[in-house]
Amino acid sequence: MSSAGDNTGISSTGDQARNIQLQAKSSGQSPMHQAAGDLSIHHDSSSLRRPLPHAESVPVPAGMNGLPRRPAAAFVGRDPALTALHQVLEDKPGTGVISQAVLGLGGVGKSELALQYAHRHRQDYELVWWIDADSPDLIRTGLAALAQALTCGIDSVAAEQATVEEAAAWALSWLAAHPGWLVIFDNVEEVADVEPYLARLVHGHVLITTRRDIGWQHLDITPIRLELLSRPAATTLLAGLIGPPDSANARALNELAEQLGDLPLALTQAGAYIARTPRMTLTRYLELLKDVPARLYATATPAGGDTERVVAKVLTLSHARIHEINPLAIRMLNLLACYAPDNLPCSILDTLPDTDPLQVGEALALLASYSLITLTPSPTDLTPGEPEDLVSVHRLIQAVTLHQLTPDQRDHNRHAAAELILAALPDNPGTIDAWPAYRALLPHARNVLPPGSPGLYLLVEYLGASGDYSTAVQLQQDRCAHTVATLGAEHPATLTTRHNLAYWMGEAGDAEAARDQLTALLPIVERVLGADHPDTLTARHEIASWTGNAGDAAAARDQYAALLPTRQRVQGADHPNTLTTRHNLASWTGEAGDATAARDQYAALLPIRERVQGADHPNTLTTRHNLASWTGEAEGMEPDSG
Prior knowledge:
alpha/beta
């Protein structure tokens, strides 16, 4: 059962230590409902990948720094919080991992505090690493990036070939084996997202920023609550941003700080506006701020509250000024509000219609000069295929920007943002060379691509190829729900997406769920397509495979034995799928305890493989390998005739 480009699942030979996995995948060139007879079989690429080096033997590369950017120069009023952080992380007794969380409103400066601390104390650590932690997917990606950074100078091939799951697990092993590091998990949404990682670490320092104030106590973490700036600190920040002569106007500085609620994000943007805009004075800005229509900021979303209203006031003025200078910049900001907040490759925006890269760069520079976005230049040790310059937008700026658009405008911008991502996704998601681009685009694509987008198929293929099976399951569930809602529960495309959802569940480690999903799907496929349809046979084949992987080797053997005559009758004795079924029958026969029968079945299969596919075909070599293996098992089990 395969849509164009969809894979039809795995036909597993069983014991991975001895029997190399065979995979059935479509060519990607066929129409929506491809017959299983068009499927080919090949080795799982994991058998050819180089292993990562032993984690305990890998040192920290000299000069490696995992911070996302340099800290802000204007940073005041946070010395007590910095001191508290240092006391907790440096002076807390105990030998285990020391963790601390910074809690506060959006826009209050949690991430900046963490960045300032990490930068000031970077010499105290062997390694400092920053992870965007908005979701479990991003946490795994951040850990995988750490593994790649640590190993790229030792074995670049292994680092690039490792899947996200493998690399993330390796990074945890490295952290567990080495002391003297600081890892920052920025913007954690749920305690449960980081708890499994903290449980596996035995030493080192972990710093967490979060808006959530529950769930930390049972991890022995008492969060430091970051409050709004004190009024003196707020006016000092404004004075430093604005500069003379207005920096001496204490009354006006105090009034502006009061208007903006002492919120660092709003203060920074107001200061940047005054400093950046010709002939703008502090007094004039206050007058403009009072004239901002209340309807533009009076209504706040539940997540933003008062802070969102404050930011909306400031953003309204910035919008008006920036639109006068360069309307394209506002168009850019509206698009950026649709993506994930952090680290969008700037090159994505280069293909925006009716623009060129130079105009895009000028618009982004203007937004950055007004502190509405943050631009991060590419590192000097850029990995081939990784995006160069990155752009980030504060979550509160995104929320306010979208809130001020009409529903039609929001839909238009989300559609335009999705089209840009779709155009940027490489068309070869299964190849290692494409993985850096997919890794960078994944969070943004998930934000903007609708469930029916062909880009979601590409993302699922990338996630499967790179080993992030749990995320592949999530996206495939979205695709499945969409096909059911739009095409109906028994449409061939729906059957395909359900089949593939079961496959990714199995690959994610839940063989029982894969087996049960396919077992429930089989009678529908038989009714819609017929008992002898190639796709029906593929479903039966997959049920047998996942039954074996779920631990019932005898049942898998019996299911393959029942399937083989139908394969031979419908598709022919020499068809590659028939040979795969014979191969798996032999494997599960051995796994069920009959090594002699497994040996004999492989011995009978080998000359057919050689005749049909050639002596040097990978599948022929696999059969020869497994024949030798089961021969050894059988001879070890049989009594000595002497």
